[in-house]
Amino acid sequence: MRLTLGDYSKVEEFSSNPEEIGKKWIDLGAQRIHIIDLNGAKEGYPVNFKVICNLIKKLPNTRIQVGGGIRNIDLVENYLKEGVNFIILGTRIFKDKPFLEEVVNKYRDNIIAGLDLKNNKIALSGWKETTDLNIEELRKSMSGIKQMVYTDITKDGTLSGPDLKRLEVVASSFSSNIIVSGGISSIDDVTNILSLKKLKCPNISGVILGKSLYKGTVNLKDAIETVTNKLTKSNTDPSTD
Q1: Which long-range contacts (CB under 8 A, 24 or more apart) does 74-79 make?
Q2: What is the pLDDT along the chain (241 residues), one digit of tens a residue?
Q3: Which of 84, 100, 124, 141 could form a disulfide with 129 if both were Cys (CB 3.0 to 4.6 A apart)?
Q4: For the chain, what are the domain ranges?
């Protein structure tokens, strides 16, 4: 299922068989799968915990990152015990500094901060609430976070291409590795993000492809080959040193 602009009334269902879809992406070369419990994000607890745990057992040898409704340390630990590699945390870490410190101290390598922005505000609680964004305060509070998923909600599900200027501002504001999400519709979008990484934002570490895969505007195998070739060229070309 995919949303458009974070609107739960604009849901598109592409398959009722997540195992089949997961295996399809793995067969095409995916080494990391991004799973969001949309119901969990909206309700504040992992509605689909059992479904997700059953799914990841059927996707061996693949790194899994899961988010949506994970708002206490027990849930973090339960998902990790079930084989999830990375936990995406949003709402609670922005509202509860002691929780953020605790979870980072215990599971620093497994935690990804979900930075979901809409019109320069942080979106929380399944994108139903927003709070003002203070980059300086956020930089300090997120200093222990190794990875962040940055989602531009104004682009999410639109297939209109990422806002590269906004991405540059966000990526330049943090030392964490930034995984980009929202609006990516073509391999050109992916290569544009790669160019930004090369020229200005080396901490951009990946992109999330969602609706573009389901709609067929991006071929996953081709995208992986393109990225691999460009990264290989950058690493071997003396002009890039």
Answers
A1: 75/45, 75/46, 75/49, 76/103, 76/107, 76/110, 76/111, 78/49, 79/46, 79/49, 79/52, 79/53
A2: 444 545 556 667 777 899 999 999 999 999 999 999 989 988 989 999 999 999 999 999 999 999 999 999 999 999 999 999 999 999 899 889 999 999 999 999 999 999 998 888 888 876 778 888 777 888 888 989 999 999 998 898 889 999 999 999 999 999 999 999 999 999 999 999 999 999 999 999 999 999 999 999 999 999 999 999 988 877 655 433 3
A3: 124
A4: 2-228
Locate 108 and state its tokens: 């620093």
**Longest CA–CA separation in the chain, Å:** 51
Instruction: Give domain 2-228's CATH number out of 3.50.50.60, 3.40.50.970, 3.20.20.70, 1.20.120.530.
Output: 3.20.20.70
Q: Is the Cβ–Cβ distance between 68 and 38 less than 8 Å?
A: yes
Token pair for 215: 């709609």
